[in-house]
Q: What sequence folds into this?
């Protein structure tokens, strides 16, 4: 039987980008959507994004930045963006976030946010002092030891890629719907960049014995999204949204 599903990740409350992506998925006649988390954390429209993602044909898992809304740390509470998101989310939307699993199996597809055991670690990208590199197959395989699925889908790093492991399994990151670049300080200061402002997602198709991946990069009104970020105090997010690039903070 032919399987076709859309995989979205890292929406980060960017309702404008999400609406474009969901419209595109609908126009292609795809009725199953898998959402890999980091759904509502961002200086845009957390409640509007939650409304769209809570539709019954979308199956979601939790990301690290969904988790800190449900189980905040002292550090997360200090962030103005965390407080902004908490003010916007309705009680039922927080309850929905709290109900999301960390991993999910859909047929032969296994979904998680970072790695199967962590929503914060990168599965495929190795962050070093010198830059970010693709891990070799055996390093990735160690992280997914014991997962029996033909395809694994993950988000978190916002970089779209498909990696075929030496054991034949396929790992797919669909890229980010709502935030095409960012910088982070840990484990070393680094930037993750898609290189363009487009909203990204992927379509997985299983036909006969093979899986195919279609990577989609959609134009949407990113200028308005960037202005939203600026209005909500995040000029750094606005730069990432407009360009798909990030300046390294040191
Ligand atoms: Mn994440």
A:
């Amino acid at each position: 039987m032919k399987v076709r599903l859309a995989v979205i990740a890292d929406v980060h409350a960017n309702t404008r980008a999400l609406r474009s992506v969901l419209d595109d998925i609908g126009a292609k006649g795809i009725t199953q959507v898998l959402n890999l988390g980091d759904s509502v954390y961002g200086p845009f429209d957390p409640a509007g994004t939650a409304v769209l993602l809570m539709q019954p044909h979308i199956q979601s898992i939790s990301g690290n930045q969904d988790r800190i809304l449900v189980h905040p740390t002292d550090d997360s509470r200090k962030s103005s963006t965390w407080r902004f998101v908490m003010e916007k989310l309705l009680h039922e939307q927080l309850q929905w976030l709290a109900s999301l699993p960390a991993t999910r199996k859909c047929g032969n597809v296994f979904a998680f946010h970072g790695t199967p055991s962590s929503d914060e670690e990168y599965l495929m990208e190795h962050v070093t002092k010198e830059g970010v590199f693709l891990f070799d197959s055996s390093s990735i395989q160690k992280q997914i030891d014991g997962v029996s699925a033909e395809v694994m889908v993950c988000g978190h790093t916002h970089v779209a890629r498909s990696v075929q492991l030496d054991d034949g399994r396929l790992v797919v990151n669909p890229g980010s719907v709502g935030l095409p670049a960012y910088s982070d300080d840990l484990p070393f200061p680094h930037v993750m960049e898609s290189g363009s402002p487009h909203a990204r997602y992927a379509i997985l198709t299983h036909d006969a014995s093979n899986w195919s991946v279609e990577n989609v990069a959609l134009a949407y009104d990113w200028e308005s999204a960037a202005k939203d970020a600026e209005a909500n105090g995040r000029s750094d997010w606005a730069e990432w949204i407009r360009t798909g690039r990030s300046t390294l903070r040191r």
Residues 3-243 form a domain with the Purple Acid Phosphatase; chain A, domain 2 fold (CATH 3.60.21.10).
